[in-house]
Amino acid sequence: MARGVPQSFYIDEFAGEGIMFEGAAGPPDYIAMGFPYSRERHRELMLSFPNLSQFGVMVSDVSRGWVRDRAGRAEIRYDLQREDVELFRRGIELLAELYRAAGAKRILLPVDREPEGRLPADLKAHDLTLMAFHPLGTARADALPARGVVDGDLKLHGVEGVYVADGSVVPSSIGVNPQITIMALATRLAYHLLRASPPDSEPEPETIAQPRITKPHALTA
Q1: Is the Cβ–Cβ distance between 81 and 62 less than 8 Å?
Q2: 33, exposed or middle or buried, with CB in 10 Å at 0-12, 13-18, 19+?
Q3: Shared domain check, 95 and 151
Q4: Are residues 111 and 11 in the same domain?
Q5: Which of 57, 79, 127, 191 has the most CB atoms in a 10 Å sphere around its CB?
Q6: Which helix (H) or strand (E) holds 190?
Q7: CB atoms within 10 A of CB 111
Q8: pLDDT score for 7
Q9: DSSP structure class, residue 155
Q10: What is the pLDDT of residue 98?
Q11: pLDDT tens for each residue of 98-128
Q12: Domain span at residue 164?
C-alpha cells in the first residue's frame, strides 16, 4: 500500500450479498493505532510497514441506531445485530482467503481474540474491532416531518431558509463511499436555491486508463 495510488483497488464481486472490499493506505500513525499488539510485537510490525497491505470490509448493515439529546449532550447508540455479525464473518473470511491466495505471510483479523488465527465459532459483536466512516442519516430526508428532518428539497421541516447539504440527509447506509452522492445532492440543491435549471447535457466522462496489476513483492494484512 506504500506504492502507487492510495485506495485505488476495490472488489465488488460480493456486492449482491451486501459486502464490498476497498483497498486502504493508512499512514504510519493510523496503522500504529490499529494494531492489536504493543511493545516488541508492535515495533516488529511497524518496521515492516513498506510490506504491509490493508483492505477494508464494508457491509450494508441492517442494524439501526439513534442520536438524541441527553442533558444537553449528544447520545449515540448503535447495536450490531446478529445478521450483520454473520455478514462481517463472511466478508472477513473471504478477504483472508484472498490474502492467503496472494501469498501473505501473516494475516491480522479485526477480532479481539486470536487476531492471527481464525474467527471464533461463537463470534459475537463485541469480538469485532469495527470503525465507522462516512456517517449518514442523522438528518434524513423524508416527505413526512415525523419520519425525517428535511424534505425532498433538503429544506429543514418547519423552518424557512435552512437547508442541509451533506451526508446526514441520506436516509440510510448506501454501502459505498457516498462522496459522489453528496456532491450530486449539493449540486441539485444549488440549482434549486438559484431557481435555475440544470444543464440539458453533461460533458462526456473522461476515459481513465486502467492500472496494470503486478504481483507485490510481499503481502501482509
Answers
A1: yes
A2: exposed
A3: no
A4: yes
A5: 57
A6: helix 179-194
A7: 21
A8: 77
A9: B
A10: 94
A11: 999 999 999 999 888 778 878 888 899 999 9
A12: 134-199
Query: pLDDT at position 219, please?
Result: 35
Is there a single domain that holds both residue 180 and residue 99?
A: no
In which element (H, E) is residue 54 found? Answer: strand 54-59
The residues annotated as belonging to the active site are: 134
Length of the chain: 221
Task: Give dist(CA 149, CA 145) in Å, integer.
Answer: 6
pTM of the model: 0.74
Grid cell at residue 119: 474467527
> What would the mean pLDDT of 156-164 be, rounded to a whole number?
96
Number of domains the chain is built from: 2
Contact 113, 129 (CB under 8 A): no
Outline where DSSP puts E strands in 71-125. 73-78
State phi, psi for 67 to the nearest 5 degrees: -125, 125
CA dist 113 and 26 (Å) reads 23
Note whether residue 210 is domain-resident: no
Q: What are phi and psi of 98, to 5 degrees?
A: -60, -45
20 class by beta-carbon count within 10 Å (0-12 exposed, 13-18 middle, 19+ buried): buried
Shared domain check, 21 and 44: yes
Asked whether the beta carbons of 168 and 137 are under 8 A apart, the reply is: yes
Q: Is residue 216 part of a domain?
A: no
Among 90, 110, 133, the domain-final residue is 133
Residue 205 lies in a domain: no
Is 60 inside any structural domain?
yes
The whole-angstrom separation of Cα 202 and Cα 32 is 44
Dist CA 169 CA 156 (whole Å):
10
